[in-house]
Automatic annotation (TrEMBL):
GO terms for cellular component: cilium; microtubule. Plus end-directed microtubule-dependent motor protein that regulates the length of motile cilia by mediating depolymerization of microtubules at ciliary tips. This is Kinesin-like protein. It comes from Pedionomus torquatus. One of its GO terms (biological process) is microtubule-based movement. InterPro entries: Kinesin-like_fam, Kinesin_motor_CS, Kinesin_motor_dom, Kinesin_motor_dom_sf, P-loop_NTPase. ATP binds at G65, P66, T67, G68, T69, G70, K71, T72. SMART domains: KISc. Belongs to the TRAFAC class myosin-kinesin ATPase superfamily. Kinesin family. Residues 169-182 have a biased composition (Polar residues). Residues 1-309 form the Kinesin motor domain. GO terms for molecular function: ATP binding; microtubule binding; microtubule motor activity. Keywords: ATP-binding, Cell projection, Cilium, Coiled coil, Cytoplasm, Cytoskeleton, Microtubule, Motor protein, Nucleotide-binding.
Length: 314
């Protein structure tokens, strides 16, 4: 459960810094090394959330980390090693089919990306840029997004692969297929009992799966022009997310923190998953390369803070 981060630039003969080692140890719920399989990661992080979604709770899974550390691989995976999206949807449908005799259920999903602070629908890219709106109950809706209802994991697979091809990816010096946007897959499960009772209750559970764009340094990715602008937008929304996480993790502390969810579209969309009514898992990715020591350090500190957020799930 521990990560030990060693500083690659530490020199044993450096007298001035002899007592100031930058070695840090972080404790997490689970830590995976390079040999972990997709199955292992899924079972330890996400599998337990699926039952909750069916009971009407909300759940969120984040992939976070610097550019090129494998976030899209963890979430989407490859055809022979599917990632969290597909595994969790398969489990979801299996569990729903088991209750199909007494419950009617519908599953609808939408898949969107936030690119340069504008929202694009990945299932219907021609619809242009979409707006975030808040409905009367205070939950955030996206006006005009395509919602696809389906009861079949295969169909969803094809939709996801199609949607992911629409995602903005560009080569940078650090990563050949760098995702330049945050992708959010939202799955809503609605269940009704088949025995039509008066005042019948509906259970609605939402599952958010978020593949964030990698935080990056222009020096490392050698970005210029348009890439540089994109990088600035990515870092801005991740900073907003970081500020929200900081404020939420200090919330029980001495000073009452104001949590600014309105800084970025990303944090507005994830408002409920971060501080609200949701069980949330953050999967932080780091690279073992010595060149990305600083990024790995920041990612670990970030994820460590996120661990202190306490939410009340109703």
């Amino acid at each position: 459960q521990r990560v030990v981060l060693l500083d690659p630039s530490e020199d044993p003969d450096d007298v001035l810094r002899a007592n100031r080692s930058r070695e840090r140890t972080f404790a997490f719920d689970v830590v995976f090394d390079h040999g972990a399989s997709q199955e292992e990661v899924y079972v330890s992080t996400t599998k337990s959330l699926i039952g909750g979604v069916i009971s009407g709770y909300n759940a969120t899974i984040f992939a976070y980390g610097p550019t090129g550390t494998g976030k899209t691989y963890t979430m989407l995976g490859t055809d022979c090693e599917p990632g969290i999206y597909i595994r969790s949807l398969e489990d979801l449908f299996k569990a729903l089919e088991a209750t199909a005799e007494e419950m009617d259920y519908t599953v609808s999903m939408s898949y969107l990306e936030i690119y340069n602070e504008v929202i694009r629908d990945l299932l219907n890219p021609s619809s242009g840029f979409l707006d975030l709106r808040e409905d009367s109950r205070g939950s955030i809706q996206i006006a005009g997004i395509t919602e696809v209802s389906t009861s079949n994991a295969e169909e969803i697979m094809q939709l996801l692969t199609k949607g992911n091809k629409q995602r903005t990816q560009e080569p940078t010096a650090a990563n050949k297929t760098s995702s330049r946007s945050h992708a959010v897959l939202q799955v809503t499960v609605t269940q009704k009992s088949q025995r039509k009772a008066i005042g019948e209750e509906m259970r609605i559970g939402k599952l958010f799966m978020v593949d964030l764009a990698g935080s990056e340094r222009a020096a490392q990715t050698q970005n210029r022009g348009k890439r540089m602008k994109e990088g600035a937008h990515i870092n801005r929304s991740l900073l907003a997310l970081g500020n929200c996480i900081n404020a939420l993790s200090e919330k029980g502390g001495s000073r009452a923190q104001f949590v600014n969810f309105r800084d970025s579209k990303l944090t507005r969309l994830l408002k409920d998953s971060l501080g609200g009514n949701s069980r949330t898992v953050m999967i932080a990715h780091i690279s073992p390369a010595s060149t990305s020591f600083e990024e790995s350090r920041m990612t670990l500190i970030y994820a460590y803070r996120a661990k202190n957020i306490k939410t009340q799930v109703k």
